[in-house]
């Protein structure tokens, strides 16, 4: 049975519908309000995400420092080998650049995913895994290198300081920088760096973090060799220290900050000198433990 509507009823319904419609001006006002709210909220959300990443990395740094400490506790104060590439058959690195047992690639896996899998396997087979069994603690979600493509891509974000049982780097005057091998040699552990966020755009780090510190307290000829990062708020980096605490530092010198942000794969060994970036290079030189600066 069909229901018949009078012409008047139909006209009233149409008029009511027209009254409920948005006009073009009303629609534009609503869109403008949404755009203003988005413009106000997006920076706040971005800052909140950055703070969450920084908190995540500081937690990772504390776990790595604790693992480093427990390794020394179990090995007569000896420090874990700081480079991913052993120099002798006795060296058991904290992480392997090439793990002794390579993982099995998944079908269709990207080059970046495969490299991340290899890096995680290198950590699992390294000396610190038993003390901190989570490969993600070597990865900074704010890092710029994990957004690049192979060969510049890197899953790992941190490196151990070289003079803590790491590579033998030649300093000024052609003499090797005096390294430390036992934790007990550190006289001021709360002031000595352990892990540094490293921005080496050549790919995964294949060594420890190095600089030329020169002689304290002036560190006159100090120079950065490996680039630190500036991934947090585009100006900060996280560190941990030999007493176990972690901190976040904002770089102060423009020349240093430009170098820390750079994705140029040729920037290796061309870091800032003390005269170019006095505040930041002095901070690193003070924290870089050597025989002369324990």
What does the model show?
With 294 residues, the protein is of the alpha+beta class. The chain has one domain (25-287). Helices cover 33% and strands 8% of the residues. It has helices spanning 7-20, 24-74, 111-124, 254-261, 278-287; strands at residues 158-160, 193-197, 211-212, 223-224, 236-241, 246-250. It has a 4-stranded antiparallel β-sheet with strand order 1-2-5-6. It has a two-stranded antiparallel sheet with strand order 3-4. A hairpin with a 4-residue loop joins strand 5 and strand 6. The relative contact order is 0.13.
> What is the SS-derived class?
alpha+beta
Question: Unreliable stretches, pLDDT < 50, 5 or more residues?
Answer: none
What is the averaged pLDDT score? 89
Q: How are helices and strands ordered from N to C? A: HHHEEEEEEHH
Helicity level? 25-40%
Which value, in Å, is the CA radius of gyration? 27 Å
The tally of strands reads: 6
Shape: globular
Assembly state = single chain
How many strands, what sense, and barrel or not for the largest sheet? 4 strands, antiparallel
Cα end-to-end separation: 98 Å
Please count the helical segments.
5
Structurally, how many domains make up the residues? 1
Portion in strands: 5-15%
**Which strand order spans the largest sheet, edge to edge or round the barrel?**
1-2-5-6
